[in-house]
Amino acid sequence: MIVMAASGAVLAWSLVAGATSGASGGPPQSWLEVAYPLFFIATMGALLRFMSFAAVLLAATVVTGAIWAIDSIALRKKRGSDKPEPLLVELAKSFFPVILVVFLLRSFLVEPFKIPSGSMQPSLLIGDFILVNKFTYGIRIPVLNRKIIEINQPKRGEVMVFRWPEDPSKDFIKRIVGLPGDVIEYRNKRLTINGTALKVEPAGATTEVDETMNYLQYEAYREKLGERNHLMQIIPDRPVLTSGVRQFPNKSNCEYNYEGVTCRIPQGRYFMMGDNRDNSDDSRYWGFVPEENIVGKAFLVWMNFSNLKRVGNSIE
Known about the structure:
The protein has helices at residues 2-20, 29-47, 53-79, 87-109, 283-286, and strands at residues 110-114, 129-133, 139-140, 147-149, 159-163, 171-178, 183-187, 190-193, 196-197, 200-209, 215-225, 228-234, 254-257, 260-264, 269-273, 289-290, 294-303.
């Protein structure tokens, strides 16, 4: 806010000086060259408190493009070819192509995300920077996220980024466990889909220390889900479900008891779970993911600053 206020004050000084005493009474040109970019960046940062990053990028693209277009169509002729471009127009022309390319790449091709929690361990670790394919599940209108071109349907076992149904401003990443129409059972820490129990093979055990300095004993398993073999882990001495189950749409499709949960997935909805089964807030607790909440398919770890060996790993 301080940066926005300071740079805004410089720009206001320039406008007032230009309207009263002319350009000679305004701030130095070097101040304006710094104030315009700082004000633009600070404004975009402030908008992120109320809008998604995609919406802020769209707004920035529209504003810079409009300034460039208005100057090209109308103002340049009035100004004359012998006069230099205003600094605002010059900066808009510089920013617009860059912002447009970033907006198009993030909206239709790939989008980067950072893994903030351990809910997908051992497949994805805290600090992993991943890439998400935005067109695998269809082309969508940016910001509105409405599908306009059908390409592929989500498959069991794929790792998907989606807008959290409880708060669509937040992106979650989980594994697709159930498709529309499936009957999913998670009982005694084992998955059953449409009456068939998934095959699992032991993959070792590990011990970790959590935030409260308690030792956690994990058992890892390799699980075949759809066409994918992936690792998942459980904490044997924890209950199948915690007390965090909330109210959610179509909750009547699910039956809960001390052994776990059984759900029949409605049409147009998906059942998502984290690979860290006893440390994941997922569809068992907050329900189904609507098709319109899908963001894309995670496919690559492109960076992890604390573990460079993970760079380039494909996401199983």
